[in-house]
Amino acid sequence: MRITSLVLRNFRNYIDLSVEFPHNINIFIGKNAQGKTNLLEALYFGAMGRSHRTAVDYELIRWHQSAAMVEIAFIRQDVPQRLQFRLHATMPKEIILNGNVVKTREIIGRLNCVLFSPEDLWLIKGTPAVRRRFLDIEISQANPTYYYQLLQYNRILAQRNQLLKKIRDGEAAVDLLDSWDEQLAVVAAAIVAKRRQAVQKLAMLANLMHRRITANQENLAISYQLTAPETALPDAGSQQWYKNLLRHQRRDDIRRGSTGIGPHRDDLVLAVNGSNLRVYGSQGQQRTGVLALKLAELEFIKSEQKEYPVLLLDDVLSELDSQRQFHLLAFIKDRVQTFITTTDEREFPDKQIAKIYRVANGKITG
Asked: What CATH homologous superfamily does 120-305 map to?
């Protein structure tokens, strides 16, 4: 998979940009607040139909403008494709794929991207929500059906939570929960099944990467943790298991006005040589774990989609020591099309391996 060109109109601080990417590794060099991250944001937007920095599309539109446009040309399995996004300040965005208007869910898995930014160093020591998001994005790109199931689950969950509040306030009957519990259990079990399958493969790949980085000194283990009682039961995570737990916890759910069990509460547990990495890992071990996860994510998507995704490295090399930088750059060279932002070109002594772009005030030269 390769991105061949990017066109921006009134996107963030870019008035009018058109740039082609004939090289495998592309490096954007410039001072802070010049627009380097905005470029990666536009590419990520093409993959997921939303920004990784804001949930509000109109914030992507250049100040004092009413509309913006992002157009990405790419090659997927040797077939040229084109995505265009038209953003409007007062109406929903339009998405055009190869000349046809489509919905966001129809582009998931078309242009696959893996983003690695300094914030990802919180993958291990951050909240469970951060790890769930990482897992959901990874699986969605490899399996677009999973993305649809997530949307379905979140819709059912919101409806159930709304009903719980009404029951708590005496505005609805408790037995109305039966139908929502049935629907929630079906989708929850499907999501957990896909997550477990993905984690099993991801764990194998991440451990291989981790052992390479640590010269076979450490083993990384990843497991999926159901945030609910009785997880040791053989049918944990099944439809019937969820139905039983939802009924068992109704009183607590009604009191809180929210659903206390389900995929929206689960977590990933990472351990190095048997010790919980979040609790006992040093900062160096945690960073190695994150790097191994990201490299494993590339391999996971390739195993599912038969080609590597595009890699976006947003000023992350400055956060890694020389050993981790070496392993990352050695992995991507001649393998993964990569877009890198940095303020310090000294991080790339061998500039022949990449195309260098200079970024200043929303303009690119190179």
From this structure: RecF/RecN/SMC, N-terminal domain (1.20.1050.90)
